[in-house]
Amino acid sequence: METNTAMASSLPINNEMSVQVCDDGLYMVSKDGSFRQKLQHFVPGVEKPSQQQVQGGDPNIFVRTSTVLMHPNALERERLGPFGFPIAEGPPLVVQTSYAQRTLQEIENEFELHRQEWERSEAMAALKDTMAIIVKENHFENVICIGLGSLQTASKSGRWSSQLQTAAMLTVMECINAGRDGTDLVRCFSQDPEYSDFDKQVLRSRGIEPVDDPQGFSLMGKNSICCEWSGYKFVTRIVSEGPWPAATITAGIEYCLNPTFWEGEGNADALSDAELELIANMVRGFERKPFPQLQVPEGEGHDPFFGYHIYWRKTQEVIGDGQNSAETERA
Fold first, then answer.
1. Share of the chain residues as helix, strand and coil, in percent rounded to the nearest 5
2. Residue 98 vs residues 144, 151, 257, 302: alpha-carbon distances, Å
3. Which of 18, 54, 159, 164 matches a 20 to 30 Å C-alpha distance to 290?
């Protein structure tokens, strides 16, 4: 079937490249027409006022069109095939997200169903065991989540992943706050430009505060636990610029530091040696453990925790600002 790429609008990026907003998505296009590639990856950014429309006449799905601000080099990196983008001032880009047309109560009910699924799993019990060790080694001040995804997305598998990952974050908060009094409880902040208004209501009702891009990064400190659920290596690179968190849950570090990942297709997108060294320094001396996996029956989707690891600071406290680091004994 031929893809409909009738151009709705075009956004110049520089003298050589522009982004075309077409009926079937976004395309990076060179001025001379020799290069054209569909943009398919998560685009973090600062959300501006959006429009809503019914997608393809289906009353059960609507599309929100948003403008985000992004790093001026991000589109060049997208052309090379990354998984995410750094956040900074730069030219705007229009992105579209499809959502299921649901009531708040329907979203609440579905999330609760999968939260209970998570709580019955062996993965939750294993995460609690790991967090008990981590909490003994660190006194956390907040939890920062990046890219948990929408609980209202039109993708059924996407909703399932986001619901389970969000439920896991509630477990992380529970483990950190266990034994603390009401004046010393950590707060959890979650940053994702795909959040709908209903998403934000559901999260707030469970103690997770949604924040706009890039506020989540600015809230991160040396006593934070950073949970990267989307964005892969470029979110990891932003985090590595400091201050370095005491712990992180991510798949990005594995992608960055695994030399075999860059073999073959996509190797032109490798980070610089300096960037890779900074990421390696961030977790040098840290403990590392695979994030507990769900037992997903064959044919019923992918494990939303596959490839993720937990890194945490040990007895030696590694302090870094992204430029310099010093190792000091814990008081």
1. 30, 25, 40
2. 25, 12, 33, 21
3. 159
Tokens of 85: 């983008």
d(CA 219, CA 214): 9
* Residue-level pLDDT at 116: 96
Rounded Cα gap, residues 110 and 28, in angstroms: 36
* Rounded Cα gap, residues 292 and 29, in angstroms: 41
Regions in the chain scoring below 70 on pLDDT: 1-28, 34-97, 231-233, 259-270, 297-301, 315-331
Structural contact between residues 11 and 19, judged by C-beta atoms closer than 8 angstroms: yes
Rounded Cα distance between 120 and 27, Å, is 43
- Residues ≥6 apart with Cβ < 8 Å to 241: 278, 322
82, 232 contact by CB (below 8 A): yes
> CB of 193 within 8 A of CB of 44?
yes
83 near 232, Cβ under 8 Å? yes
Q: What is the pLDDT of residue 182?
A: 81
The pLDDT score that the predictor gives to residue 156 is: 86
Q: What angle do CA 150, 156, 159 make, to 5 degrees?
A: 25
pTM over 0.85: no
DSSP state at residue 259: G
Q: Kindly compute the dihedral angle of the four CA atoms of residues 290, 80, 215, 157, in this order, to the nearest 10 degrees.
A: -50
User: So what's the pLDDT on residue 105?
Assistant: 94
Do 249 and 228 contact (CB within 8 A), yes or no? yes
- Per DSSP, the three-state class of 188 is strand
Structure confidence at residue 263 (pLDDT): 53
Helices (H) and strands (E) in the chain, counts: 9, 16
Cβ-contact 235, 44 below 8 angstroms: yes
